[in-house]
Design brief:
By secondary structure, the chain is an alpha/beta fold. It is built from 19 helices and eleven strands. An eight-stranded mixed β-sheet has the order 6-5-4-7-8-9-10-11, with helices on both faces. A three-stranded antiparallel β-sheet has the order 1-3-2. Strand 10 (about 265-270), helix 10 (about 270-280) and strand 11 form a beta-alpha-beta unit. Helix 11 (about 295-315) packs parallel to helix 14 and helix 17 crosses helix 18. The longest helix has about 35 residues, at about 70-105. The chain is globular, with a radius of gyration of 37 Å. The protein starts with 11 loop residues before the first strand and ends in an 8-residue tail after the last helix.
Length: about 450
Amino acid sequence: MASSSSLLEPPFHFTNNFSPTPKPHLLHTNFSPTQKSHTLTLTVCNAAINPPPPPPPEQPLPEKVPAVLPEVALEAASATRDRRKIVRVAWEKLVRWSRSLRLKANTDVLERTNKVVVLGGGSFGTAMASHVAGRKAQMEVNMLVRDPQICQSINEKHFNGKYFPDHKLPDNVIATTDAKTAFMGADYCLHAVPVQFSSSFLEGVADYVEPGLPFISLSKGLELNTLRMMSQIIPQTLKNSRQPFVALSGPSFALELMNKLPTAMVVASKDKKLANAVQQLLASRNLRISTTSDVTGVEIAGALKNVLAIAAGIVEGLDLGNNSMAALVAQGCSEIRWLSTKMGAKSTTISGLSGTGDIMLTCFVSLSRNRTVGVRLGSGETLDDILCSMNQVAEGVSTAGAVIALAQKYNVKMPVLTAVARIIDNELTPQKAVYELMNLPQVEEV
C-alpha cells in the first residue's frame, strides 16, 4: 500500500494482484504481456482525484429585461458628456473673468508706493513686511521694533532671529528703533502691535504720524478696559478721527505666509477707494485679497475667534472627542454671530473668510497660539505657567473678559465664551465648565 503522502502527488501508481474494474472515465488500465502475475497497473489521473469544479448553473434572466437597455446606456453616456461640458464651460468662464479683472486692475498703487512702515517686530508683522517687500524690490519696508537685538539681526543678517531664524528677509526690509526714521516718507503703515499695548505704543509715536497716513491693522482683539476695537483705538489715540483705517483679517498663519503658501484674506474699510488701494498693494500670486465695508464684522470675528480657539483647545486637552469639538465650535460660531449682528455687522461676514474661515484655522490647527493655551489648560497646567513659557501673545486670554462685558452691554447670551472667561479668571475648572455647558437648558437656535 502506498503511503498517504505519495497519494497526493500525481500521477499515482499502485500495483495490486486483484483490483476491481475501474471506471472508464477515471482510470486507465495498462496490461503488460510480459508480467507473469498479470499485474494490473492503474494510472490514476490527477483530474480524476481532483476534478475541476462543475460549471456554475446558468443564472436565470430577470423576469423583465428592459428592452431599451442600449438606449439607456447611450442616454447615460450622453448625460455624462453634457455634464462634463457644463463644468468645463463654467470653469473657462471663471478663468476668463479672472483674467479680465487682472487686466483691468490698476497697478499704479504699487508703482507709486515707495515706503511702507511696519509697527512691531513679531511673527505676523515680520511675515507681512517680507511679503510687501517682495512685491517691489525698489520699495523700502521699514520695521519699527523695540528689541535692539532683533533690529541688529534684521539689518546685518536679514533674519528675525527670534521668530524666523530660518527665513531670510528681502534686502529691502530695514529695521529701526527710531520712530521718526520709520515714519518719515511712509505711504502706508501696517500696525502689528498687540491690541492691549497699542494705545501706549501709538501715544509714543503720534508726533511722527502724518494725518493722511493709511493704517492697515493686523491686530485682533478688544481692549480690556475700554472694549475698543482697533478701528477706535488708532484714530482716538492719534487724536485724528479721520485717520485712514483698514482692517486686514482672515485665516492666515505667519509661518505659511513666510513659506509663500496660498492664503486668502479680507480688507475691510468704510472707504471703498482705500480698500481697493490696499488690495492692489498686498494682492499677489500667493495672497488673495477680498474687500468689504463691514469693518465691525471683521474686527469682532477676529477678536472673538481667539477666545473660541481657547475653548476648542480645552476640549482637545481634556480628550473629549470629535463630537464635543464640533458641537462646541458650532455653538461658538453662533455666539459670535449673535453679538456681531447686534453690533451692526453683516451675518455674511461671519460666514466668510474673516469669520468662519479664521475660526476654523484658529480652532483646529496646532500652530494657533490660543488653541495651544486651551490644550494646556485642559491638560491641567496653570495659566501663569503657560503664559510664562510663551514668547508670543495669545490675544484670546486678555480678550475673553472684554468679550463678556461687551455681551452684557448688548444683552447677548454667550455660554461658551463666558465659560472661557471664567476658566481664565480661575473661577471655574475646565472639567466643571464642560459639565455646566452640557447641562444648559435646551433652547431653539436662532
